[in-house]
Amino acid sequence: MYVLATRIDVHIAEAQSLKDKRRVVTSIVDGARRRYGVASSQVDGERDLDRWQRASLGFAAVSNSQHHTTEVIDEVSRFVWSFPEVAVIEEERTWLT
């Protein structure tokens, strides 16, 4: 079993409220879950929850093939990058054992 998790930190330049942030984050997280069958969530730390323009998004894929798991997370990453409302600041991947 192969499990790959990624955390993607994004900047949402046009967010002027937590409601704006939540709209963008929900669209990305729910969209990735539906399209790619991954576990997904907003994973902001305490300090980022009240920041309107920053968000950390977490995604995890499980497969019986390391190659397939990597492909799925690559697709999720491209999906996040495709949103014009966000600028990706950082992405960190971790293989879980």
Description:
The protein is 36% helix and 35% strand. The model has no long low-confidence stretch (mean pLDDT 94). It contains two helices and four strands. A four-stranded antiparallel sheet has the order 2-3-1-4, with helices on one face. The chain starts with a strand and ends with a strand.
Summary keywords:
Alpha-Beta Plaits, 2 helices, about 100 residues, alpha+beta, 4-stranded antiparallel sheet, elongated
Please state the CA-atom Rg, rounded to the nearest Å: 13 Å
Low-confidence segments, given as residue ranges, are none
* Broad CATH class: Alpha Beta
**CATH fold-level assignment:** Alpha-Beta Plaits
- The secondary structure category is alpha+beta
Total discrete domains: 1
User: Which word captures the global form?
Assistant: elongated
- Could you give the distance between the termini? 9 Å
In total, how many beta strands?
Answer: 4
Beta-strand content bin: 35-45%
Can you give the helix content as a percent range? Answer: 25-40%
The name of the CATH architecture is 2-Layer Sandwich
Order of strands in the sheet with most strands? 2-3-1-4
Order of helices and strands: EHEEHE
- On the 0 to 100 scale, the average pLDDT is 94
Helix segment tally: 2
- Describe the biggest sheet? 4 strands, antiparallel
Assign the CATH superfamily.
Answer: TT1725-like
Summarize the structure.
This protein has helices at 18-36, 66-81; strands spanning 2-11, 39-42, 54-63, 87-96.
